[in-house]
Amino acid sequence: MHKRNKSIGWALNQFKNRSLQGVSYRLNRGFAKPTRIIFCMTLRCNIKCRQCAIWRTPNKDELTTEEWKNVIATLRDWIGPCRVQMAGGEIFIRNDILDIIKFATEKGVLTGVVSNGTMITKKIAEEIVETGLGYIHISVDGIKPETHDYIRGIDGLYEKTIRGINYLVEENKNGELSIGIATVIMKKNLHELTDIVKYAENRGLEGVIFNPLSPTIDSDPDWFKKTDLWFDDLDEAYSVIDQLIDMKKNGAKILNPVEQFEGMKEYIKDPSPTLHENCWVGITNLSITSDGYVHTCFKMPPLGNVKESRINELWYSDQARAMRENIKNCDIHCSPGNFVYRRSLIDEIVRYFRYG
Known about the structure:
Blueprint: H1 8-27, E1 36-40, H2 65-79, E2 83-87, H3 97-106, E3 110-115, H4 122-130, E4 135-139, H5 145-152, H6 157-171, E5 178-185, H7 193-202, E6 207-212, H8 234-249, H9 258-269, H10 281-284, E7 285-288, E8 293-295, E9 304-305, H11 311-315, H12 318-328, H13 345-355
Helix pairs in contact: 2-3, 4-6, 8-9
């Protein structure tokens, strides 16, 4: 990663909190502050992805500009140097998003965003770079226009997405902004994944982060049987993933660790079971929804709302402690399709010095 994603203060803070996560997990306590922070800035979206249910969700009252700024300032005062990912919906639907990003970076919060790229004009690209944003991942689900447009639900989107990437590259003259691609692995695009990696390399991007197809909201264990995007041929899917593993080992710009791809193969074989491995989300994750509700796990009730309580009070509350115990004993169907791979502490340190 480039220097906007690098901070010795953040690295030391990560090390301290990762060191405390074991005891936090055993005792269901929030001794470790969250190390993975996600803001859902809006549920509004300008496209209709076939694999996503968010755009079908009724819009909710969103936190105002000042409310988001208060959240950011509170987090920074409590956690210290931290990294936040902002997502949606499509975050550039918010006309105040650049103001919020700039506020975060000026507060010393390492900030990244996920976007479909279609709303990024030359002017917006210039403003994005000027905010001090650390990274932006643009969703690209096919190297062929017809594939990307089919998955994204609207004709002509591929051209707009690539144009948005081009504007970002052109405006990122000093190379401080990390520009990458996010791709969902599914039946429809299996044989275009390696070409997406090659495109990212040829365009001078940071790389590609892959995630397998998963439900965005649905908890139905049989969700994958009800979509034409799920894999028909497991051997074919394994073969493509093995190609990505080989590319990764040979230095290709793929942001996933090899272990994550191996986990994806197990997931693709059977996405219906609940998680059997220890779930750490109760002590690692802090998510805030567009209307201000605070979660560790979205499958569980919220801990409260930032409009009524301070985030740190919710994190240390008796309710949070009970929630952490419930998460450890959870039997709710939880398909790990977004596949957040928890690296070892040593791997985190190595990755920091290699990528930031």
